[in-house]
Amino acid sequence: MIVAIIALSILLLFAVSLIIVLRRDMRRISLKAKKIREDGSNNLIRNESGFMSNELIEEMNILLKESRTGKIYYEQKRHEVEQMMTNISHDLRTPLTSALGYIDILKNEDIPWEERVEELWTIERKLIRLNELIDSFFLYSKVISGENKFEKEKVNLIALLEETAGLFYDDYSAKGRDIIMNSKEKRVNILSNRELLIRVFDNLMGNSLKHGEGSLVIDITKCEDEPMVKVVFSNELHDDDVQIDKIFDEFYTTDISRTKGHTGLGLAIAKQFTEILGGKIKASYNDNRFSIILFYSIS
């Protein structure tokens, strides 16, 4: 009986000691986790006493690592969104400022009627351009959310490229640049959505205008081995920071694009819309020449 009481007392004492050690470890781990969280350090929790479950410590360390990764990702995206909003403001302000400048010119009563009409047409084009930019941002948000379904129809690719290029004529001319189209075909029909296709071409020409140098060359050729048409937009570009693998990311910008005011959405829109239309898109950068290559099925 005495032996049993002694054994029970020893067992109880061991249990109490173990509880004390576990509580101390829990307190130590709690303080350690708090310090790691507050300091933002890369330290991990250790099982110093050996009484805590290694599986529990491992799971806590996994949570710490995931929390750090999530925080870094959040901060990166927050910075990218802030940069994008700044650049969107710049993109929208550019045609608006230009239109306001032409309005100031019209306030001069000495301007001949013919020149006044020409200035009004220019203002209209600038405001149409502004409206298209706004539509592009809203359209992109709807597309990526899956809200809109787009019907396809037969579209003359050559005519649509010429139409879009015409909207950029003044902007390219102002910089002493041209848009040069090369095609053996006068008409190439594809099954597509006119609105989305215009947005694709608009963004590619706008991207070249902002960041490219020299003339924008557009080559249209029919593929020999399959019923597809290949469209290549290419221009000179001197920028060693270009990362082709990120060029279609939503918020991707390089130092050169930040200085010129680029939303980071242009090529993302082009990629998203091209794939929705069943086309293919890729980019290349060789010998200071940047190219966007599109493929569409011929109807």
From TrEMBL:
Q: Which reaction does it catalyse?
A: ATP + protein L-histidine = ADP + protein N-phospho-L-histidine
Kindly list the places in or outside the cell where this protein is found, as annotated in its UniProt entry: Membrane
- On the tree of life, the source organism's domain of life is Bacteria
| Record-listed E.C. numbers | 2.7.13.3
Keywords assigned by UniProt?
Answer: Kinase, Phosphoprotein, Transferase, Two-component regulatory system
One Pfam family name is HisKA
- Please list the residue ranges annotated as the Histidine kinase domain: 87-299
Q: Which Gene Ontology BP annotations are present? A: cellular response to phosphate starvation
Concerning Gene3D superfamilies, the annotation shows: 1.10.287.130, Histidine kinase-like ATPase, C-terminal domain (3.30.565.10)
Gene Ontology MF: a single term:
phosphorelay sensor kinase activity
One GO cellular component assignment for this chain's record is: plasma membrane
The protein's predominant localisation is membrane
Q: Which CDD domains does its entry note?
A: HisKA
| Top-level EC class | transferase
Mind telling me which PANTHER family this protein's record contains? PHOSPHATE REGULON SENSOR PROTEIN PHOR (PTHR45453)
Protein name, as recorded: histidine kinase
Name the source organism: Eubacterium ruminantium
